[in-house]
Fold this sequence. Notes:
The structure holds 2 protein chains of 2 kinds.
Chain A: H1 2-14, H2 17-32, H3 34-37, E1 58-67, H4 72-80, E2 87-90, E3 93-96, E4 100-104, E5 107-115, H5 131-167, H6 169-183, H7 187-198, H8 202-229, H9 232-239, H10 244-281, H11 292-300, H12 308-335
Antiparallel strand pairs in A: 1-5, 2-3, 4-5
Helix pairs in contact in A: 2-5, 2-12, 5-6, 5-8, 5-10, 6-8, 7-8, 8-10, 9-10, 10-11, 10-12, 11-12
Chain B: H1 2-29, H2 33-37, H3 45-54, H4 61-73, H5 88-123, H6 128-142, H7 145-159, H8 171-201, H9 204-211, H10 216-228, H11 230-253, H12 259-268, H13 272-300, H14 302-305
Helix pairs in contact in B: 1-13, 5-6, 5-8, 5-11, 5-13, 6-8, 7-8, 7-11, 8-10, 8-11, 11-12, 11-13, 12-13
Amino acid sequence: MLISLWRRVREARRLPLLPLVMLLVVLVIPAVFAPLIAPHSPVEGNLNDRLLPPFWVGETIGYKTVVEKVNRENRLNEILLKDAERRIKIGDGTITGGGQIVQVGDQLEILFRKEGSTKYLLGTDKNGMDIFSRLIYGARLALVVSLLGIVVSGILGSSLGIIAGYYGGIWDTIIMRLVDISLSISLVLIALVLAAVRGPSIDNVLIVICLFLWSRYARLIRGETLLLKSQDFIARAQVSGASDLRIMYKHIMPNLANTIIVLATLQIGFVIILEASLSFLGAGVPRPNPAWGLMVADGRELLSNAWWVSLVPTVAIVLTVLSINLLGDWVRDRLDPKQRQI
Amino acid sequence: MQRFILIRFIQAFVAILAVSIIVFSLSHLSGDPLTTIMPMGDVEPEDIEALRVKWGLDQPLHIQYGVFLKNAVRGDFGESYAFGGQTAMGMVLLRFPATLQLAGAALVLTLVIGLPLGVITAVRKDGWVDYQGKAIAFLGQAIPNFCLGIGLMWFFAVWLGWLPTSGRGGIDHLIMPAFTLALFQVAALLRLTRSAMLDVLDTEFIKMARIKGIPEWKVVWKHCLRNAFIAPLTYFAIIIGSFFTGTVVVETVFSWPGVGQLAVNSVFARDFPTLQAVVILGSSIYIAANLLVDILYAYLDPRIRYS
């Protein structure tokens, strides 16, 4: 009793805590509790609050000299400065009002500052949408798309892999040739064609994931099935009159569960990257949905004026993928040390 | 061997054919391409009919596919919808040098960084360098390339102001896109070279070489690397293939005027001929690279061709 408890604690200690916590904080908790956590709507913006920085940033984004040589008379004039003069052009946009007047040497300048507030924790984008809320709903999107893709392609690929391995012959040939074709086609290019034809949509991402991911499962599972098939317990099941379907489902499938789980965990990171990349290219999730890749793309042009618009989702993607890959490695080492190569 | 090569050639051919079928059938899923590209209202129905006949869109689908395939083999994908008067293939070829430059630079970076790092980490196994190498390998394969690109762009172009943000120009324009494109493959090549080197370092003839008193650097860089080179060498083709699809993302990040950017732009312009040209050409390069790997591998490692 005590020994088994001790063992459990030791097992738990080996669990990679940092990536696990990171994954929970960045992806899982936001995804599950999105409506509870998000302070604002992810798709509606307030146009008065465009491009506000995160709460810890208050930066001077420009200044304009209004008076060259200060004397008493034009010192008074500062109060009369019309609103129209309190304008500054930065990049493509004009920022109006809010200027703070300071004296620098002999000159009088208006400083234009934007300060973040806790109203928008991570700032806003060019449509005045709250980045924090978009990030949270984006986690939901990323999680749903990747899990759906993994599950569907996993079931499809594993079934075809077992069929190919178990029946062999013509089935094996057909399925494995399809696998070869699927593995030799470039994903991104086909996704682009799909986007051009149907317009960007979540369905496209799922179609691309399923069309191409199944083959990885099929190839691996077929190999494992071939090894299992030659073992005695399968022959005994056949002799005792079990149907093919029963053998595949009751005898082969349970022996492959670990392999399938390992491959699936290792694929999640890949799928999240794929979804984000496609959305970044504009071929994945359509606007104004809060997809992380889309958010990065939206901020690309603004990088020099409003870095937070694209850097915040970039950090979210990198943290998510890093922690998923670390966890995936751990799951693989625990469940299936043979498979170090996949 | 000949049989193996023949089978692989047929497979590659079937794969390219499959791509052409996918591309063709997808392009025709959207319905009539003419209605999507014609400005609304101010076009006479007769003009549309004339264009339909001119582009062969009035023919049955399988005949259209036959014509499409016949022309595709000759590199003729028709006129670009978006850039009037230009052929789709011409547009691609116009952009090709930029992509070639980017991919070439990335290839050089991959070799210069990945190969030596792989050798050093293998020689100093479990040492400090090996530890760093593992970190690079892990990060390189976990960070999506557009995230890396945005991060680099912000740090080096906006924050430090050392490099230009985007576009094509001198060497300084090339550094960030090439590195972004290369990092994933640097990580892959590092791992591959390391494990190949570890295998060779363990063999008898290396021990023999050391006993004979050959200087250590010569043992490592000449005797070992030459024997460990098979796996990385065959991997080059994969690298080249992946660069031509990886450029789609990297070129979009850095506004690099290459084929990848053309592909993305033609998605938004619904410029099917150009997109078809890019996809079929890109896929062909990718498939050809894979084919080359298999053949090289079988040539260098007899166990494969006889299995």
